[in-house]
Specification:
single chain; Neuraminidase; 48% strand
Length: 434
């Protein structure tokens, strides 16, 4: 990769479309009718201009639905659903990201897990331009014939735009797979240097019989800082044997300072005998701070808490074993973390059927605000998602999506953060069922 040809931004396969629903084996059917099923596992991303995109999984039909909002989340439009129709092709665990090209056209990337009729799995990618989703949509398989996996693959996607735009903005994916030759679980990284046209540079971050199941990836690139401060950070789980035949997961991180070409040695962020899992990572875009959040089984007691580790020098050194939500009377699990530029780290998590939000300073994430309940009713589900928008005031830049069962079916809901609702948004605006 020619790093010298990559210029900082000035500003802050084949797809078959079957509108009638005619299925071809292992090719997704695209449907434009409104969904009716129950949804979960949401993912959210913001474009530079503030346009929001959400992908959710239909838990009954094994479809994937995509929505967008051009007014900061006040109203939402349904774009389409993706499924395999009658071919046995099922979709799950979507992850969504955006990037700009050199004409300031927003590209949307949705990575997801595809489950095939023969029992194998694949990592697939749907991409399209935000201003012409149907006319520019494109679909491809990134990694195929993944076998021996009883657990989800959990693909996660991000881009390095901003701070880079142009034909060279990269797309990055991490996922879990099982290596049948080595009988080992692997946390795998892949990248595309041509906006998703071709994929390569496969790198295995962890490989052992008891490795973790859920890696996450983010890009941080401080504008105006030295080039080596630009970095990809991957967080992942590994398991250690704490007693004979007893394995517990730890959280690790690894940093690349050359856009995924090479990687620093992996750093272990958790050192207790507790089970620590579900890491999520966020990195400032115009600073050097990085935060990794995760779920911890405190004292192996069944008391689940949210903890974190952070770095203020782009992953060179880490401060570890920091408590974020650690009540002994309730559980706190499945955190997500986001930041835009160097404003605030935004963290959300699930606790006793509510979704909680807290933030910390982007430069020194050492103290977190008092948690605020986001959802209106005590019916929230785990795995909420958050992103940060550069077009909103700092107190409103966190965009949050979760699912709850307040109606007939489990649906997805959206809100800004809980500090202030001066923009007029009501807590718990639905995505497409208003």
């Amino acid at each position: 990769m020619d790093l010298g040809s990559r210029l900082p931004a000035v500003v802050f396969g084949i797809l078959f479309l079957f509108v009638a629903g005619v299925a071809v084996a292992d090719v997704p059917v695209i449907d434009y009718s409104n969904p009716v099923g129950e949804v979960g596992n949401p993912s959210i991303a913001s474009a530079i201009d503030g346009e929001l995109f959400v992908a959710v999984e239909d838990l009954n039909l094994q479809w994937m639905y995509i929505y967008h909002s051009i007014d900061g989340g006040n109203t939402w439009s349904y774009l389409w659903g993706v499924t395999g129709g009658t071919s046995g092709y099922e979709t799950a665990n979507p992850s969504i990201a955006v990037g700009e090209d050199d004409n300031y056209v927003t590209w949307v990337y949705v990575a997801f897990e595809a489950k095939h009729a023969d029992g194998s799995k694949s990592v697939d990618l749907l991409r399209f331009q935000a201003d012409d989703p149907i006319g520019t949509s494109d679909y491809e398989t990134i990694a195929s014939n993944i076998v021996g996996m009883t657990n989800p693959i959990y693909p996660e996607v991000c881009t390095d735009s901003p701070p880079y735009v142009g034909p060279e903005h990269n797309v990055y994916i991490v996922f879990n797979r099982f290596n049948t030759i080595e009988s080992a679980h692997e946390a795998v990284f892949m990248m595309s240097e041509d906006q998703g046209d071709t994929w390569g540079n496969l790198f295995v971050h962890a490989s052992d019989p008891h490795a973790g199941k859920r890696p996450h990836v983010t890009f941080g690139g401080p504008l105006g800082f030295p080039g080596d401060a630009f970095r990809l950070t991957v967080a992942f789980e590994r398991a250690v044997e704490v007693a004979s035949g007893v394995w517990k997961r730890d959280v690790w991180a690894r940093v690349s300072r050359d856009f995924g070409a090479t990687w620093d040695p992996a750093v272990q962020l958790t050192t207790s005998d507790d089970d620590e899992s579900e890491p999520r990572v966020a990195a400032a875009l115009d600073g050097t701070s990085v935060v990794v959040t995760y779920t911890r089984d405190w004292g192996d007691s069944g008391d689940m808490d949210v903890w974190y580790a952070y770095s203020t020098n782009a992953g060179v050194n880490w401060t570890t074993n920091q408590g974020l939500a650690t009540s002994s009377s309730v559980d706190e699990v499945t955190p997500d973390i986001a930041i835009v530029f160097n404003n605030r780290f935004h963290c959300i998590y699930w606790s006793e059927w509510d979704i909680f939000y807290s933030w910390a300073d982007g430069a020194t994430p050492t103290a977190w605000s008092n948690p605020v309940v986001i959802n209106e009713l005590n019916l929230g589900y785990t795995n909420p998602a958050v992103c940060a928008s550069a077009t909103m005031p700092e107190a409103l830049e966190a965009a949050i999506v979760w699912t709850d069962y307040r109606g007939v079916d489990r649906k997805a809901y959206f809100d800004r953060d809980g500090d202030l609702f001066a923009d007029g948004f009501e807590s718990g605006d639905t995505l497409a069922w208003n």
